[in-house]
C-alpha cells in the first residue's frame, strides 16, 4: 500500500515552496529533510521540548506537531529566516548574555522568545514563565531570562555579557521556566 502524496504550498523564510509529500508529514521533517533547513531541531517529537519551534504566520508553533497539509498558504519562518546575519535583537541578546551551553535547544528557544516579544514587548518574569515553555537540558534558564529582558530593553549594543550565575540562582530559577 502506497502513501497518498499531495502538493502542499506555503512560504518558508520568504520563499514559496511546494512539497510533494503526504499531507500528514510533520513540518519539521519537510523543513529539515526536503528544504535542508537544519536549524530547526528534532527534540522529542511530541511537542513538549520546543527545540523544533518555528513561526507560522508569526505565531510560535512546535513544527513536529504541525502536518504540512494543515498549513497550505501560510508563512513559515525558521531560525535561518529570523536573520541571516544574527542581527535580530533576540539573537544579539543571546550572544551578549552567552546563553548557549550545548546550543541544541537554542534555535527553538530564540524563535519562541521572538514571537512572544511581538505580543508582550516588555514581559515580566511571570509572563516569561507562562509563555516560554521550551526546555533547556543544560539549565541555562537564568541566562535565558536575562537575555529576554535584555532583548525587550533593546540593550544589545554593548556586547558585554551579564554576570555569571551562581548554582543556587540557577536552581532557584530553573523550575519557573520549565514546561508544565
From TrEMBL:
UniProt-listed Pfam families: Fer2, Fer2_2
InterPro entries in the record: 2Fe-2S-bd, 2Fe-2S-bd_dom_sf, 2Fe-2S_ferredoxin-like_sf, 2Fe-2S_ferredoxin-type, 2Fe2S_fd_BS, Beta-grasp_dom_sf, Diverse_Oxidoreductases
Organism in which the protein naturally occurs: Sandarakinorhabdus glacialis
Lineage: Bacteria, Pseudomonadati, Pseudomonadota, Alphaproteobacteria, Sphingomonadales
Top-level lineage group: Bacteria
Keywords: 2Fe-2S, Iron, Iron-sulfur, Metal-binding, Oxidoreductase
Gene3D superfamilies, per the entry: 3.10.20.30, [2Fe-2S]-binding domain (1.10.150.120)
Region (Disordered): 154-180
Residue ranges annotated for the 2Fe-2S ferredoxin-type domain, each copy included: 6-82
Name of the protein described by the UniProt record: (2Fe-2S)-binding protein
Record GO terms (molecular function): 2 iron, 2 sulfur cluster binding; metal ion binding; oxidoreductase activity
